[in-house]
Design a protein that fits this description.
heterodimer, A: 119 residues, mainly beta, 7-stranded mixed β-sheet, 4-stranded antiparallel β-sheet, 0% helix, globular, B: 108 residues, 3-stranded antiparallel β-sheet
């Protein structure tokens, strides 16, 4: 069965960077886009962008352009999301989510990684 | 960017009741590329409905979706205890992909 296992919680200072990993299993990693979605405490869902694990191609939401970088290591079926120049309002749970079949729907999700930005 | 507005914000209901949730888009969603998810506390969201009315794999038939253009609806025919959660709509017609603000269905 599909599993997405994310790295653990992080605490970062404003201005720092954070890199979250998402290890995939149970399917062909390079066959499906991987999305990143975040959720601030008590708030709704916000899409950040997608990564094509096959080519390394990316598409970022304009809001995060210049601050987010999505990469992958196909040898270990792992996707990464790095967010730089962190601000207090970047405090959120960050999820990786597998694309269903190239249609920008999310059919499997990681367990989430809490990133706290605090001075 | 397509803005999705969900209503109401919160619904207080009892098990067995019928519930209807609304999602309105700021512009027409082509091809009914509108999905619904629910999220229980401490869990990741789960895909329920795609294409406005198609149930995702493993979703029981008490969940149904309808609508087109700018107005979409999710209906749960009889609430089960496990259905109390937050429900989000999502459009996948255009980038950026966007979600509604959510409707919380809580136990009365």
């Amino acid at each position: 069965q599909v599993q997405l296992v994310q790295s653990g919680a992080e605490v970062k200072k404003p201005g720092a960077s954070v890199k979250v990993s998402c290890k995939a299993s149970g399917y062909t990693f390079t066959g499906y886009y991987m999305h990143w979605v975040r959720q601030a405490p008590g708030q709704g869902l916000e899409w950040m962008g997608w990564l094509n694990p096959n080519t390394g191609g990316t598409n970022y939401a304009q809001k995060f352009e210049g601050r987010v970088t999505m990469t992958r290591d196909t040898s270990i079926s792992t996707a990464y999301m790095e967010l730089s120049r962190l601000r207090f309002d970047d405090t959120a749970v960050y999820y990786c989510a597998k694309d269903r079949k190239g249609d920008y729907l999310f059919d499997s999700w990681g367990q989430g990684t809490l990133v706290t930005v605090s001075s | 960017e397509i803005v999705l507005t969900q209503s109401p914000g919160t619904l207080s209901l009892s098990p067995g009741e019928r519930v209807t949730l609304s999602c309105r888009a700021s512009q027409s969603v082509s091809n009914s590329y509108l999905a619904w998810y629910h999220q229980k506390p401490g869990q990741a969201p789960r895909l329920l409905i795609h294409g406005a009315s198609s149930r995702a794999t493993g979703i029981p038939d008490r969940f149904s979706g309808s609508g087109s253009g700018t107005d979409f609806t999710l209906t749960i025919s009889r609430l089960e205890p496990e259905d109390f959660a937050v429900y989000y709509c999502q459009q996948y017609d255009s980038s950026p992909l966007t979600f509604g603000g959510g409707t919380k269905v809580e136990i009365k």
